[in-house]
Specification:
heterodimer; A: about 110 residues; mainly beta; four-stranded antiparallel β-sheet; 11 strands; globular; B: about 120 residues; seven-stranded mixed β-sheet
Chain lengths: ~110, ~120
């Protein structure tokens, strides 16, 4: 059974700083079918990145995704106040989609 | 505009049943697979169930297999989740989402299982 492990659990940064979030799969699945979502309190998740590196419609270019195989990264180049939230990775290329445990990006 | 609106959540006793609905609009519902995803209070996202556009492929998370049943009515643009033998650990906000790669989500409906 594939497990998606996100690290770190919490990232404490200041606005304007760069955020680097990791998502590691326990085994190789469909390596490009990796997505990232942002979730703010009381809201549904919002799709940011799909196919590991493609930005969803309307997503600012400060968000970028990279990686393949078992290691994936979401980078936020310069944190804006509205970027402080929880981020989830997801493998969606399998019969049973799977989410990682999430990384909370909080204001330092 | 794509809209997904869940309903049917509430308080139910352990062992009880509940039926969630998701009303879809703004797109050709019959052309898309649909999913239920849940989130326990203060916890992460957990995918619950998947149904393809014609109801020919259905999958469940192990945690709900044998207790939950997903279905859809394409004529009514609606998705359903019948939840039986509910447990305290099923307490969560339940979201419907379009496709496994979920661009569109509903606002969620809260299910609380407690005596």
């Amino acid at each position: 059974e594939i497990v998606l492990t996100q690290s770190p659990g919490t990232l404490s940064l200041s606005p304007g700083e760069r955020a680097t979030l990791s998502c590691r799969a326990s085994q190789t699945g469909n390596s490009n079918h990796l997505a990232w979502y942002q979730q703010k309190p009381g809201q549904a998740p919002r799709l940011l990145i799909y196919d590991a590196s493609r930005r969803a419609t309307g997503i600012p270019d400060r968000f970028s995704g990279s990686g393949s195989g078992t290691d994936f990264t979401l980078t936020i180049s310069r944190l804006e106040p509205e970027d402080f939230a929880v981020y989830y990775c997801q493998q969606y290329g399998r019969a049973l989609p799977l989410f990682g445990g999430g990384t909370k990006v909080e204001i330092k | 505009e794509v809209q997904l609106v869940e309903s049917g959540g509430g308080l139910v006793q352990p062992g009880g049943s509940l039926r969630l609905s998701c009303a879809a609009s703004g797109f050709t519902f019959s052309s898309y697979s649909m999913n239920w995803v849940r989130q326990a209070p203060g916890k992460g996202l957990e995918w619950v169930s998947y149904i393809d556009s014609s109801s020919s492929s259905i999958y469940y998370a192990d945690s709900v297999k044998g207790r939950f049943t997903i279905s859809r009515d394409n004529a009514k643009n609606s998705l359903y989740l019948q939840m039986n033998s509910l447990r305290a650990e099923d307490t969560a906000v339940y979201y419907c989402a379009r496709n496994r790669l979920a661009m569109y989500w509903g606002q969620g409906t809260l299910v609380t299982v407690s005596s």
